[in-house]
Structure to design on (602 residues):
């Protein structure tokens, strides 16, 4: 067996630590036995070596056992007596000292020879016999080991069978445990549902005691809103199980708890609003907003809870919410009634022209409406509502009462046109094709409505004053002698020079100014109507009064009719050009530097 096979054998059949000691002892004993046998053979060889074999000439000493037996038989038969002579050739030291006896007969010789030959054969076969004995011993051990292995295999088969039976039983136990766990889960769920239902009835006492606790700060307790929600869930549960015992009684008492909680919210909010109204500061809007926002931080959770429950018509939360909103708007009116008029007066003192005053007023009230919407959202969580619209209408009513009389009293066309342009800049975004920010229409609905009404009044006033301007400044125009001379000079030079470099008939000039003023300030149909009316009046003035005045100023000239006709033709051309809004390139008047006025009825 090679070293590689020996290593593979040791790796495949690992000897346990408990057997290594016994194997080492066995190996040591085997080595000792081999050493003893080698020592014995060497001793026997030394004893036999010096002696001369007297039978060498008779043949080889390696005779078979059968031959030795036959020689021994012949020696016994030739012996005169049945008793053998003493052994004189004993070579084994175990027999003691050898006794030299003379061989007298053939039988003694043959016996002696047989013993010698047997001893030689035994000495030659001792090592083989020892190895054979060792093999028989190992064979017996292998047999016993095989029996042990069979017993171990039988035991393993028994254990395997037991394991399979245990596995089957374990699977059965596992299935039974799964069934038990399922049942336990259902029982636990059922127990939870039962406890939950029992908690519904058991929570009545603590909730009632909590809501009826003395003091004004019950609403600010962190457990207030959770207690209100538990009362509402309990009420819903009892209403869903009306067939339960004493369900009507419990439903009534939980409804009382909810009503008590909503009433506490209302009382606390009204108390806070009265305190804020009493501490209003009309001098500083920023400090007022900071103070109100600080209160909103405290009241917002309660008012949002009330706002969410205000959509349920069957509860008294709607009326409670209306009362709280009324208290809130009353608090805001206390401050706005003094702040808005005072601010409008301050803005009016800062400007001298009406358009600038109206522009700053619109910006101010727009900011007030936006601030009121944001404050309302900080308290109630929404940025629109009927109450908020009514509150903003009150603010805009103050603005409207201040603006409308100023528009009605205004008689100048250019001022009214500037007022219309200012109001158009603040009209509703979706009507002016501008983007609308989220939440803005709800907050500024009242503002846009009042601005639209004021704009309508201003446009009507502008149209009325434009018609009066046409009647007074165009139709009622009377040419002076100087204007007549200027017209004649203009007519005589019109062939060589441009019309824009010289004189222009005053009604045409006023028509051009009027068209420039009303352009974009009124509706398209109204603008076209006013333009057509002014153009017709201008042409009528040119054809009648203008032509007659020019003819009278050159009376006696042969070309008087020709000059009058040429005056009418050129003036009519300029009038048609002046009626177009974009044709304002010559002869026009600046509304800021020159203003037509006439004593016409307002």
């Amino acid at each position: 067996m090679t070293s590689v096979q020996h290593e593979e054998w040791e790796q495949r059949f690992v000897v346990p630590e408990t057997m290594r000691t016994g194997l080492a002892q066995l190996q040591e004993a085997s080595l000792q036995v081999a050493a003893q046998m080698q020592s014995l053979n060497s001793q026997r060889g030394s004893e036999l070596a010096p002696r001369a074999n007297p039978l060498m000439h008779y043949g080889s000493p390696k005779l078979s056992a059968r031959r030795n037996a036959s020689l021994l038989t012949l020696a016994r038969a030739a012996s005169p007596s049945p008793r053998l002579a003493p052994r004189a050739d004993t070579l084994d030291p175990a027999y003691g000292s050898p006794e030299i006896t003379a061989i007298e007969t053939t039988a003694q010789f043959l016996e002696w020879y047989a013993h010698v030959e047997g001893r030689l054969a035994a000495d030659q076969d001792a090592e083989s016999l020892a190895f054979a004995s060792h093999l028989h011993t190992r064979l017996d051990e292998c047999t016993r080991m095989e029996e042990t292995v069979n017993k171990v295999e039988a035991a393993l088969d028994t254990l395997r069978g037991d394991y399979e039976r245990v596995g089957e039983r374990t699977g059965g136990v596992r299935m039974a445990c799964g069934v038990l766990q399922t049942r336990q889960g259902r029982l636990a769920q059922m127990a939870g549902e039962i406890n939950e239902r029992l908690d519904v009835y058991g929570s009545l006492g603590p909730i009632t005691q909590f809501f009826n606790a003395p003091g004004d700060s019950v609403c600010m307790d962190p457990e207030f809103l959770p207690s209100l929600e538990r009362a509402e869930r309990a009420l819903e549960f009892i209403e869903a199980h009306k067939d339960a015992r004493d369900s009507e009684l419990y439903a009534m008492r939980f409804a009382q708890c909810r009503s008590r909680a909503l009433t506490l919210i209302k009382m606390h909010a009204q108390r806070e609003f009265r305190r804020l109204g009493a501490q209003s500061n009309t001098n500083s809007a920023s400090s007022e907003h900071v103070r109100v926002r600080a209160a909103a931080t405290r009241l917002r959770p309660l008012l949002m809870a009330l706002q969410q429950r205000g959509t349920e018509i069957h509860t008294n939360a709607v009326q409670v919410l209306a009362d709280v909103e009324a208290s809130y708007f009353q608090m805001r009116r206390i401050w706005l009634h003094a702040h808005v008029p005072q601010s409008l007066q301050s803005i009016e003192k800062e400007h001298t022209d009406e358009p600038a005053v109206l522009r700053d007023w619109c910006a101010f009230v727009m900011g007030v409406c936006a601030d009121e919407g944001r404050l309302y959202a900080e308290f109630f969580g929404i940025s629109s509502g009927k109450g908020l619209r009514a509150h903003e209408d009150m603010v805009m009513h103050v603005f409207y009462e201040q603006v409308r009389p100023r528009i009605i009293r205004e008689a100048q066309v250019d001022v009214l046109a500037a007022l219309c342009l200012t109001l158009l800049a603040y009209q509703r975004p979706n009507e002016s094709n501008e983007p609308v920010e989220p939440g803005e229409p709800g907050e500024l609905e009242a503002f846009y409505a009042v601005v639209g009404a004021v704009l309508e009044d201003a446009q009507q006033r502008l149209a009325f004053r434009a018609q009066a301007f046409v009647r007074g400044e165009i139709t009622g125009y009377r040419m002076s002698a100087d204007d007549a001379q200027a017209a004649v000079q203009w007519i005589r030079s019109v062939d060589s020079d441009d019309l824009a470099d010289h004189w222009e008939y005053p009604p045409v000039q006023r028509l051009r100014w009027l068209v420039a003023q009303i352009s974009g300030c009124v509706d398209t149909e109204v603008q076209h109507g006013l333009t057509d009316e002014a153009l017709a009046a201008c042409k009528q003035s040119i054809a009648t009064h203008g032509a007659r005045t020019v003819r009278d100023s050159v009376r006696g000239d042969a070309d008087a009719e020709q000059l009058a006709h040429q005056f009418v033709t050129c003036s009519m051309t300029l009038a048609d050009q002046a009626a177009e809004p974009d044709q304002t390139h010559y002869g026009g008047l600046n509304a800021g530097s020159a203003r037509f006025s006439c004593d016409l009825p307002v």
